[in-house]
Amino acid sequence: MDSSGQFFDDSCVTLRHFICYDGKDQSYVFINMAKTWRDAQRYCRQYHTELVSVRNKNENLQIQKLIPAGDKVFIGLFRDAYMWSDNSKSSFRNWHPNQPDGSGDCVMQLLKEHNLWDDDQCSNPKPFFCYSIMKKRQIIKMVVKSDQNVNDPGMNMAILEKVKQKLEEMGMPNDTNLEWKQSSEGIFRPLMR
């Protein structure tokens, strides 16, 4: 961003001043040190919160006032072709200095070097981490007082729907699966997954 409030693209390894956002006192902080974009990001994350994001015209004007006339500074916007394999939209990056350097299309984590990232050939064998989703299973026991047959499939569905509605009102996620489980005594009970 320049002192007139205009955005432009530049190499991430150019040395520039930069502006951090400090979430503690909700302010923008001009840093009068020349750093690469990645080093500026690392500095902001260490001493403030993050490189500044410009989300509207008012923020653009506030940030513009901090930029010395004729100067250009790094802000938090960047173009990054790397995507997470699960298609999540995280902008977090933790690159080793001067990385990525174009040496590969896949990203590895350097565990011996402060867990920083490096790009590498996807064909190079490496150990890896998998993401595991914890599933919670809970059994709910309840007593249904009714003159109707609670083992009737239509009645089962109506009861499950009412139980699900009550649990959602109490904060249960609406994508929770409820089903009936038959106990050893032959009694059907709702099962929450």
Question: Explain this structure to me?
Answer:
With 193 residues, this protein is an alpha+beta fold. The chain folds into three domains: 16-74, no CATH class; 81-132, no CATH class; 138-192. Helices cover 19% and strands 22% of the residues. It has helices at residues 37-47, 57-64, 153-169, and strands spanning 16-22, 27-35, 50-51, 73-74, 106-110, 116-120, 138-139, 178-182, 188-192. Strands 1, 2, 3 and 4 form a four-stranded mixed sheet that branches. Strands 7-9-8 form a three-stranded antiparallel sheet, covered by helices on one side. A hairpin with a 4-residue loop joins strand 1 (16-22) and strand 2 (27-35). The chain is elongated, with a radius of gyration of 27 Å. The model has no long low-confidence stretch (mean pLDDT 81).
List keywords for this structure.
3-stranded antiparallel sheet, 22% strand, 9 strands, alpha+beta, 193 residues, single chain
The helicity comes to: 10-25%
* Uncertain runs: none
Shape: elongated
Give helix and strand order, one letter per element, not per position: EEHEHEEEEHEE
Main sheet overview: 4 strands, mixed
Number of strands: 9
Q: Structural class, judged by helices and strands? A: alpha+beta
- Range of strand content: 15-25%
Q: From the alpha-carbon coordinates, what is the Rg to the nearest angstrom?
A: 27 Å
**Mean pLDDT reading:** 81
The N- and C-terminal alpha carbons lie at a distance of: 50 Å
Number of domains: 3
In DSSP terms (H or I, runs of 4 or more residues), the helix count works out at 3
